[in-house]
Specification:
By secondary structure, the chain is mostly helical. It has helices at 9-12, 33-44, 52-60, 63-90, 97-105, 107-140, 148-169, 171-202, 219-233, 249-286, 290-299, 302-336, 354-374, 376-383, 386-406, 421-442, 452-469, 483-489, and strands spanning 19-23, 445-446, 449-450, 478-482. The strands form two sheets. The chain has a two-stranded antiparallel ribbon with strand order 1-4. A hairpin with a 2-residue loop joins strand 2 and strand 3. Helix 2 (33-44) packs across helix 8 (171-202), helix 3 runs antiparallel to helix 9 and helix 6 packs across helix 15. The two termini are 21 Å apart.
């Protein structure tokens, strides 16, 4: 009888004949600091900066208060980023907020978050951004054979499919695409600044108002202005979803978040300055299309085409970034829930959750089709789920306190300075945004129903699904094979 050869300890690092534990593929640290910054800047800067400054100008009514609102938005975002930096460095995971919520409150709360994110927050945002891309690209390259709504939907669907395929190819392809798109997007914003400088140089900019004491806006109007400012800054928290893939995340996570927000704040201030110098505070408040009006003044009718291309690029940049981070929530949920295990598979060769990306792409395309069929009602439905987003955002902030108490011995490479003051300020901001979004939604209606029920319905469906698939959390899957059988197969 021939004796079967066995592995030695030098072959496997384990005693001869012992079971060999082979862990499933998992995220690896492959993203550099530059890629992380490009992703954060890309996901934050969207179409909002082309619209929000007009509303902020109208609500503040004075340049000093207007610029103060944007500076305050940057400061509050940095405070929030410092809180997320502690969570993301202490609990690095591709699940981001999902992972923090699960550790702090349990699997039920994290599942509801994953459901809300998959059903509306991420996929709905991708679909809406697809329509923004399609609407503005149609102004440059109209599809005459189709009705406008379906033409925009076709462009949006094409963008979602192409970018999903890019990211399915691998994280490096997705990150490289994001870097290029972000550079083009930033270049477009700087073009707005150049247009204002051109107008000032030619003496055709809006006349500067006579110097006078800054009038303080009412507390309610300034607070509402801050709602739009903070919404325009929204998205930096998505950095948490790449914490497991960021090289030297202990240092680079803080650098990526703070650097990104500083860049975004500077760009927002420059663009707001350009609008103000070109149109004046009153002109800003009355404008329906700030950037288009400014570029038309500077470059004539070609300026309108330029702004359409700029907004389309901004939309597609945000689509790509949202595709990258959105699929990682589904991947994390798939790791915890056996019934969703298909989503929890990581492609080691490509460095990305391929199945989660396919499912996310299909869901976003379905929402695009629904949006083309229902029109603005779909846009309203997604907007009316804002309270759900701010609810979970607030819970993520509170989780920092919960986890410090519950897991005091966990290593925290970065701790929020001035604790607990800064986290309290961040949670207060989230609470204010939750209250503001609830107030807005409660005053709206959709299909004859109070819009507040939209968010309730999303969570209610999540609760039903939770009851149907309820199962204990399972540990990360492993394959156990005998070293003898592995040796035979080699």
């Amino acid at each position: 009888m021939n004796k079967q050869p066995q592995y030695s300890a030098n072959d496997t690092g384990q005693p001869s004949g012992a079971p060999l534990i082979i862990e499933e593929a998992a995220p690896r640290e492959v993203l550099g600091l530059g890629s992380a910054i490009a992703l954060i800047v890309g996901v934050v800067i969207g179409a909002g900066i082309f619209k929000a400054p007009a509303m902020v100008a109208g609500m503040t009514g004075d340049a000093t208060w207007m610029f103060g609102a944007w500076i305050l938005g940057g400061i509050m975002s940095i405070i929030g980023a410092l809180c997320y930096a502690e969570l993301a460095t202490a609990y690095s995971s591709a699940g981001g907020d999902y992972h923090f919520l699960r550790r702090a409150y349990g699997s039920s709360v994290s599942f509801l978050f994953a459901w809300a994110r998959f059903s509306v927050i991420s996929t709905g945002s991708i679909a809406l951004l697809g329509f923004v891309f399609g609407d503005y690209l149609s102004q440059v390259l109209p599809l005459a054979a189709l009705e406008p709504a379906w033409g925009s939907a076709l462009y949006g669907a094409a963008a979602i499919i192409v970018l999903s395929l890019v990211n399915i190819r691998g994280i490096k392809a997705g990150a490289s695409t994001q870097s290029w798109l972000t550079m083009i997007e930033v270049g477009g914003l700087l073009l707005i600044v150049v247009a204002a400088i051109f107008l000032v140089g030619n003496g055709t900019a809006a006349a500067a108002p006579a110097p006078q004491a800054a009038a303080s806006p009412g507390g309610g109007s300034f607070g509402l202005a801050m709602v739009f400012v903070l919404l325009t800054f929204g998205g930096w928290n998505e950095a948490a979803y790449i914490s497991a893939e960021l090289k030297d995340a202990r240092r680079n996570m803080v650098r990526a978040l703070v650097t990104s927000i500083l860049i975004i704040t500077l760009l927002y201030l420059l663009v707001t300055w350009a609008y103000w110098k070109g149109l004046g505070i009153e002109g800003m408040a009355k404008s329906e299309a700030l950037a288009a009006d400014l570029l038309r003044m500077a470059f004539g009718s070609p300026g309108e085409k330029i702004i359409s291309v700029m907004i389309a690029i901004a939309a597609v940049t945000s689509i790509n970034a949202t595709l990258i981070v959105g699929a990682r929530t589904s991947y994390a949920a798939g790791r915890d829930w056996p019934v969703l295990s298909l989503l929890g598979r990581w492609d080691a060769a490509r460095g990305t959750p391929v199945n989660a990306l396919w499912v996310q792409c299909a869901a976003a395309l379905l929402l695009v089709a629904i949006g083309a069929w229902t029109g603005s009602g779909f846009k309203s439905m997604v907007e009316f789920t804002a309270p759900v987003f701010w609810l979970f955002f607030l819970l993520s902030g509170i989780s920092l306190f919960v986890l410090r108490v519950r897991e005091p011995n966990t290593e925290r490479p970065f701790k929020v300075p001035l604790f607990p003051l800064l986290p309290v300020l961040f949670c207060a901001m989230c609470a204010y945004m939750l209250w503001s979004s609830l107030s807005y939604v409660y005053s709206q209606s959709l299909g004859g129903l109070n819009a507040a029920w939209i968010g309730v319905a999303v969570l209610a469906v999540g609760v039903v699904l939770l009851m149907l698939i309820r199962a204990p959390r399972v540990p990360p899957k492993q394959s156990v094979v005998s070293t003898k059988s592995l040796r035979r197969n080699l």
